[in-house]
Amino acid sequence: MVSKPWLGYNTRGQYRYSDDILEFCVYMGQIGKTEATADPKPMDSASASASADKENGAVDSPGQLDAGALFVLKSRGSWLHCGYHLTTSIVGPVIFSFPFALSLLGWAPGLVITALQALLTFYSYNLLSLVLEYHAHLGKRQLRFRDMAADILGPRWGKYFVGPLQIAICYGAVISCILLGGQSLKFIYLLYNPSGKMQLYQFITIFGTVPLMLAQIPSFHSLRHINLVSLLLILAYSALVVAGSIHIGNSRNAPNKDYSIQGSKENRILGAINGISIIATTYGCGIIPEIQATIAPPARGKMFKGLCICFGVIVITYFSVAISGYWAFGNQSQPTILYNFMAETRILVPTWFLLLTNIFTLVQLVAVTVVYLQPTNEIFEKWFANPRMDEFSARNVMPRLVLRSVSVIIATVFAAMLPFFGDIMALFGAFGIIPLDIILPMLLYNLTFKPSTKGILFWGNTLIAVASSALVAMGALASVRQIVLDAKTYHLFANM
Predict the structure, then answer these.
(1) Could you read off the pLDDT of 426-469 as tens digits, one per residue?
(2) Which of 326, 422, 451, 483 has the lowest tally of Cβ within 10 angstroms?
(3) Are 337 and 330 in contact (CB under 8 A)?
(4) Which letter does DSSP use for residue 95 in this model?
(5) What digits encode the pLDDT tens for the residues 217-264?
(6) Residues 6+ apart with CB under 8 A from 168
(7) What are the C-alpha distances in Å from 459 to residues 439, 453, 490?
(8) What angle is formed at CA 325 by the lines to CA 322 and CA 331, rounded to 5 degrees?
(9) HEC sequence for 285-308
């Protein structure tokens, strides 16, 4: 009897089945062939060990062992660890921009778009997870985004499009986090020394030394404790921002609460596009397959639980910061809400309050930086490490130390040299985050499970992919507009 392939989970964690997918699998002969050749006897310890090795990227031939999978993408984590990784990769200080995004859209459109984007992203990430689990069920676990693209779309897609795009986005995120870390350090410095002479590039260099050391942590799974702390810090600084907004909004010095959208019709349209782009990119991840690779097999259902943890944090933090900040400051909301906490002549909250918020933000940025170093770390291990030798042998430690250090140093130099890199990254993000996180999952799911072209699932996914392509164009337009507006401030090593 042919076992039924699965599509998702019911409320008890059991698999739901699809007749369309069953017909597809029978046609391909995948499931039937597996069962026809299966050995009814239980595996001995050697077979079980070999199976576990394959789950981690090892193959029977020593010449084909994958050091990147063996050393960086170790599959040892639980669904809780997965939730920590997901939360750190998605949620960050970018949430401070939500009140500003709402000021460009208004109450109802802003909150509706925020909620729809949350639902869409959760759905997209879950589809991607189901595709990964399906291929693992067939005996070919895919550990990297480029592996998925190569297996489903063809080798050139993985090698020339998805792989380079993912690396560019992730390394760009590293540069952006180091830049933000330097800006947070400078903010703390100026709180206590307003006339200080230190320049931004000096703070960026100081901040860069921390991820330089943490980059040497060997595997993604080893970051689980750091990412748990990161999750707690996210909750902490979000609570502080909400408390600060409510305090200022109810104080004597509260700004006039004007929720109208200002500017000409053209500027309002462009502002709305910018607001939608800001909200869309705050849900970006780009490393879902790599995070799922850290889960110990069998991985079925664990990613869904991890996503529930992550999006639970997202709902708590995104909406609370957006609503409280926009309520307090209305259309005067700044690109980061912390700037609203300081009036022209004085600070509207206690100094220790701003200090604590920035310290929490600073530490969490370190975790985000290290998480987005993992794709480049994995490539370094794959190219330069020897999988037949111990992970901590001198042969493997020395290239790891040198290459990872050089990677962080280069990112720090770029952050110091291009303090306007955030504007550039917004443009890259429009072309990278939405295709990786929204468009590709829809395409990969339809190609893998082949839902009926007469059904709502196929056309729903297709519609989402097409609409998201329009969102890419909108994000690019908003980013180019912002670059034009800020171009007059651009120069190398600017003290911004």
Answers:
(1) 777 777 888 899 999 999 999 999 998 888 999 999 999 999 88
(2) 483
(3) no
(4) G
(5) 999 999 999 999 999 999 999 999 999 999 999 988 778 888 888 888
(6) 428, 432
(7) 13, 7, 44
(8) 100
(9) CCCHHHHHHCECCCCCCHHHHHHH
Q: What is the pLDDT of residue 459?
A: 94
Q: Is the pLDDT of residue 470 over 60?
A: yes
Burial 67-101 (b: 16+ CB within 10 A, else e): bbbbbbbbbebbbebbbbbbbbbbbbbbbbbbbbb
Q: 49-91 pLDDT, tens per residue?
A: 444 444 444 333 334 568 888 899 988 999 999 999 999 999 9
Rounded Cα distance, 295 and 298, in Å: 8
Could you tell me the two tokens for 96? Answer: 């401070």
- pTM beyond 0.85, yes or no: no
Encoded amino acid at 340, one letter: N
Place of tokens 């410095």: 189
Q: What angle do CA 439, 442, 444 make, to 5 degrees?
A: 105
CA–CA distances in Å: residue 270 to residues 107, 253, 424, 438:
17, 31, 18, 23
Single-letter amino acid code for the residue at 21: I
Q: Burial level of 492, CB count in 10 A (0-12/13-18/19+)? A: exposed
Backbone angles phi, psi at 17, to 5 degrees: -115, 155
- Amino acid sitting at position 363: V
pLDDT at 20 over 50: no
Backbone angles phi, psi at 347, to 5 degrees: -85, 135
CA-wise closest residue to 181 among 431, 384, 419, 477: 419
Q: Comparing 45-49, 175-179, 182-186, 328-332, which segment has the lowest mean pLDDT?
A: 45-49
Which tokens sit at 214? 């943490």
- Is 381 in contact with 175 (CB distance < 8 Å)? no
Two tokens, residue 228: 């748990």
For helices 302-329 and 98-105, the axis angle rounded to 10 degrees is 60
- Amino acid type, 63: G
Q: For 424-447, give the secondary structure using H, E and C.
A: HHHHHHHHHHHHHHHHHHHHHHHH
Burial of 173 (0-12, 13-18, 19+ CB in 10 A): buried
Do residues 352 and 367 lie in contact, with contact meaning Cβ atoms separated by under 8 Å? no
- Number of residues assigned to the chain: 496
- Which has the closest alpha carbon to 109: 327, 272, 281? 272
Q: Could you tell me what percent of the chain has a pLDDT over 90?
A: 53
| pLDDT of the residue at 207 | 95
Number of H helices, E strands in the chain: 21, 2
